[in-house]
Each structure stands twice: as C-alpha cells, then as structure tokens.
Specification:
The chain is an alpha/beta fold and 454 residues long. It folds into 2 domains: 101 residues, Urease, subunit C, domain 1; 307 residues, Metal-dependent hydrolases (TIM Barrel), CATH 3.20.20.140. Helices cover 36% and strands 19% of the residues. The chain contains 14 helices and 18 strands. It has an 8-stranded parallel sheet. Helix 2 packs across helix 14. InterPro entries: Amidohydro-rel, Metal-dep_hydrolase_composite, Metal_Hydrolase, MTA/SAH_deaminase. This is 8-oxoguanine deaminase. Keywords: Hydrolase, Metal-binding, Zinc. GO terms for molecular function: deaminase activity; hydrolase activity, acting on carbon-nitrogen (but not peptide) bonds, in cyclic amidines; metal ion binding.
C-alpha cells in the first residue's frame, strides 16, 4: 500500500470493522481527493479499482474538524503561573510571558499542534492566532507553510487584539496592534491564502479576539472585509460571567447585544465557547445561523461552564467542537474532546439525551458547518476523502461490543491511519515525513528556554 495514491486512481477502503456512514458496510471508494462511492455490505464497487486497502481492523469515521485552537499555547502547557485559575487571572498571568514568543518557537508550536491534531484523527485544523508581538508579523504565513508541509487541511483565522490595559482592555501594550495594522494585514493574508472554493486546503477567517481586547471599529470593519472576500468571522463570546460583567460595564450591553451592534449576527460568524447565553439570546443566535464551537476540555479546566449545545442546535445554530488552546486544555487531541463533549453534556442534559453519535457529529458535520463547508464532515459521494481510521486492539477496547460507541466510550485518542484529500497523511500511527521525536525535543527546549520561570 503506497503512501500516496496516484492522481486519478481509484482506491477501495474495504470492509471496515465499522464505519460512520449509511450504506457503506463494504467500505468506500476514493478517486482523486473525493469519495466517489459507498459500497454496501457484502458488495463490491460498481466499477474496477486500482488499489485496495483492507480496513477490517479499522473503525472509519469522517476526519474530525477542529474549529478553535491557539497553537502557540503548546509552549506554555501546565505553566506554574496559570494553573488552577479561571479565565481572566489565567490570561493576565500568561500575557506576562507570551510577549517572548519568537518566529522559530511559533513555527515549532504550529508544527506540533498540527501533528497532534492529525494524530487524533483531525483532518481540518482551525486555529485562532491573535498574538502579534514585534517580530511575529508573519504568523499566518508560518501556519500556512506548516499546514502545507504536513498535508493537513487548514482554517487559519487572522486574530487580533487592539485594546491594551491603558485602553481598558486586558492585554499589555506589547501584545496589541492598532486597528489599521490589523486590517491591512487581514487584507494581505486574505489575498495571499484564502481559497473559498470547494476542496480548499487553506482558508482564512478574520478573528478579532474578544469584546475585552478589540475595538468596535475593528469588529465592524472585519465584518465588512469578510463580506468582500467571502470569508468567515470568528471570536470568543459568552465564555465566562466575567465577560458578561465586562461588557455590561464597558458597553452597557450583554455580549450578544454587542455582537449584533457590530454587525456579526449572521451565518458568516461562529463563536468560541458560547456558554453564558440566556434563552432569548439562544433563539436570536439560532435564527441568525451563528455557529458555536463547544470546547468541553477547556471549559472544564478553567471552570467556565458548559455550552448550551442542545438548545443552540434546536434553535438553528451549527454546533461544532474545538480543543481550544493547549494552555487551557494542555493537549491538542480532538478525539479526546469528543469523549469529553459526550461526558460533560450527559452531565448537563442526562444520559439518554446525548449519545456518542451526537458527539461525533459535532466534531465532524457540525464543525464543518461552523466553517461554512459542505464538502467535508461526512462520508458520502462528492465530499472530500478526509477519513480517520482507528484500531481497537488495545487493552482499553477489549470487550467492546459496538465499535463506534467503543471508540468514544473507551477513550480512543490516536488514529492508526488518517487520509486528507485522498492522500494518506498518517500511517501506522505516524505522520508521514515528520520526525516526531526531534520535534518534541526542539519544541520542549524552546518552551523551557523562552517561558521557564526559573
């Protein structure tokens, strides 16, 4: 079995142990970058194939789609300044060290986060990068380069902070840029990298960070740019009660009213966290089609609360999943996030209300909808061949009866094979072309030298 399928060749991923797709018990046929056929159980493809991969040991699911992360935070995991704190004190503690971030460190942080996500079965990696200290102006360029090198699909949002402490915001002066600089660079990266077409490997979104560190002007003009370039909008909203209090004090309104005032109440936008919305706000968000990225691991770590996933979906909001930053999750494993989403939402709604299939749907089709993509997130004809294949041959899975439920309930966290756009990018649990041991050593060295407290 070759690492890369020849262009135009037909590959049959045959008779999986289980597959998250209707009418595909016999597997799927991939041609080029797309799925062209679902094969029924005990059947064969309708026409000849060039290669066959025996998937009888594998549980096959759509490639997971991560809709919120902060790659640079892999360098400050479990940092002594920040552990055991809620969001605002956590942020203020880490702002004091994040200004040391260098281009070399950011490149390694991005490479490591992409690799972690890929290994967890993630085929589309979204990142919200909002940190631009002096010297790091080309952050988006770096992330695009690293995604292309690994062959993962990337959704990079050009984040920003323009309100510092002296302006009434949270971050220090060293970490903010003025609105004009942000808007100019937003246009630059959209022109260079954003591909709005189906099957795109790189897309760009605009992501002013949150109400407590950007101006309303930046929010409004980002929305206008998004209309002009046909791209998505992303921000943190409704994450904590402290944010509610800040918005009421600074703007005289709640976060959702703020969102509407700045022109973001539409289906272009998706929000990170979305926890503290009242019933009326949930209805408004759903009616507008605003997406929400549920970040269960981070929300538990910072004790922020639980996203109202079921109510938001019922109201019409797409709901996806994200790992969030690796300093508030402390890893970049989206498959683990699926399990955490299941557990946290069962605690919230009851054991019979949220199933493993709901959690998997949020991480695939729901996340794809947040990104405005109908070409990924499901295993069906015409969609991109983005697939994650897991084996169940570890002790943790022994005795599991329903393979798809076993995957989630018994804690799968590392894919055996991952395919992106019809190409194998992980084989036998290893990313193709990446020396993970060397990456870990270099990344760890820089993390300790730049952000160590000794």
């Amino acid at each position: 079995m070759s690492e890369h399928n020849a262009k135009g060749s037909r590959l049959w991923i045959k008779t999986p142990l289980a597959i998250l797709a209707e009418g595909a018990g016999g597997g799927v046929v991939v041609e080029g970058s797309r799925i062209v056929e679902r094969v029924a159980a005990s059947a064969k493809p309708s026409s000849s194939v060039d290669e066959t991969f025996d998937a009888s040991r594998h549980v096959v699911i759509p490639g997971l789609v991560n809709t919120h992360h902060h790659f640079f935070q892999t360098l400050t995991r479990a940092h002594p300044l920040a552990i055991n704190k809620p969001l605002f004190p956590w942020l203020k503690s880490l702002y004091s060290v994040w200004h040391r971030l260098t281009p070399e460190a950011f490149r390694l942080a991005s490479r490591l986060a992409y690799a972690e996500l890929l290994l967890s079965g993630c085929t589309t990696a979204g990142d919200h990068h909002y940190l631009f200290p002096k010297g790091l102006e080309s952050s988006v360029d770096i992330q695009v380069e690293e995604a292309k090198a690994l062959g993962i699909r990337a959704f990079v949002t050009r984040g920003s902070m323009s309100l510092s402490e002296r302006d009434g915001g949270l971050p220090p002066d060293t970490l903010v840029q003025d609105d004009d600089t942000v808007l100019s660079d937003s246009e630059r990266v959209l022109s260079l990298f954003h591909d709005p077409s189906p099957g795109a490997m790189v897309q760009i979104g605009l992501a002013p960070c949150s109400p407590f560190n950007v101006t309303k002007r930046l929010m409004r003009e980002s929305a206008a740019l998004a209309d002009r370039y046909d791209c998505r909008l992303h921000t943190h909203l409704g994450e904590t009660l402290d944010e509610d209090a800040y918005c009421l004090e600074a703007f005289g309104q709640r976060p959702v009213d703020y969102l509407e005032e700045v022109g973001w109440m539409n289906a272009r936008a998706w929000l990170a966290h979305g926890i503290h919305f009242n019933d009326e706000e949930v209805v408004r968000l759903g009616k507008a089609g605003v997406g929400v990225c549920h970040c269960p691991t981070s929300n538990m770590t910072l004790a922020s609360g639980c996203c109202r996933t079921c109510e938001l979906e019922a109201a019409g909001s797409p709901v996806g999943l994200g790992v969030d930053g690796s300093a508030s999750n402390d890893n970049s494993n989206l498959m683990e996030g699926v399990r955490h989403a299941l557990m946290l939402n069962r605690l919230t709604y009851g054991a019979e209300k949220v199933t493993h299939l709901d959690a998997l749907r949020w991480a695939t089709e729901g996340s794809a909808a947040c990104l405005g993509r109908s070409d990924i997130g499901r295993i069906e004809e015409g969609r991109e061949a983005d697939l994650a294949l897991f084996t169940l041959d570890e002790l943790r899975f022994s005795g599991g009866h329903d393979p798809l439920a076993t995957l989630v309930l018994c804690g799968a966290y590392r894919a055996d094979r991952v395919m992106v756009a019809g190409q194998w990018r992980v084989i036998d649990g290893h990313p193709i072309g990446l020396d993970t041991r060397r990456l870990r050593e270099e990344h760890s060295r820089l993390a300790l030298s730049l952000f160590g407290t000794s």
